[in-house]
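Async update (no meeting this week)

Hi team, since we skipped the sync, here's where things stand on the single-chain job. The sequence we agreed to prioritize is pasted below, unchanged from the tracker. I ran it this morning and attached the output directly underneath so nobody has to dig for it. Comments welcome in thread, and please keep replies under the output.
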Amino acid sequence: MIADRIHAAICEMGITHYEPALVGIEPVVGAKAEFVGVPFTSEGTISVGSFLFRWCGLIARAYTRTLLADPLHWDIAPASAKDDLSKLMQNKKLSRYWVRIFGSFAATGTHALVPFEPATKEEVLIFEQVAWAMEYFAISHEYGHYVVGNRSLDADPFEEEFKADRFAMRVAEYIRAEPLGQDNPYIATGAGGTLLLLSLELLRTVSKARYAMRGPNTHPPTVERVSRIANRHAMQPQRLAMDRSFNDAACRIMQAVSSTVAQYQKQGYFEELRKLTDGGKLGSP
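Output:
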């Protein structure tokens, strides 16, 4: 459904491109999405791993709960890494939920070790908006590699990623009311993409690239990608202010999450979890 809507948006944008890419879900673990071109042809395949959407859903749920726990702090209070970390750590249940998400995917590539905690009626609208925004960005980005003709042997891999990000944000203008029929600010501002990029960067850190998308050898620094997304409307002050507001909140929360995860990592939590799962002892850490 996501791929069909993105393809329709591309057609609505009047972009001349090749035949629709073959889209599929690979039976592999991890948070993965990629485009693979067929050599010497104009065809290609866009694929995601079996657990990408679980990843987006879990990150969206944890993000929504963090935001709603104190929205004024994340949106208005002066940015302070120390205060942000303290704010998250004060909520033990929430901070542990974040750690369980990264621990589960780092150790197993799946959500197997994360407790099932569905969104409440107070959370569901923002949760759905954030999750859809992350998923649309992931697929739109891979379509960007296909449509703009990237992946040539002599291409600059960093510039390819920037082009794909820009394309994903162009598509966002056409699907910003998807799928709920009302404007989704996390799609329109790119904050869903920012949240996906930052969460995957942290997953690469704790999993040592075991179950995450490709890392820094083929991708530019995440901070630069996020900056380009958040500041792309530099000549439109109102749009820029909105973009910065949503993206800054995502950056602040993910920085606090990263610091929280780092504390558990120093204590050996993730290494011990990997040992348990590698030995077939899936317990409740």
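Quick observations from my side:
The beta strands are 22-26, 33-37, 44-49.
The longest helix spans residues 237-266.
Reply here if anything looks off.
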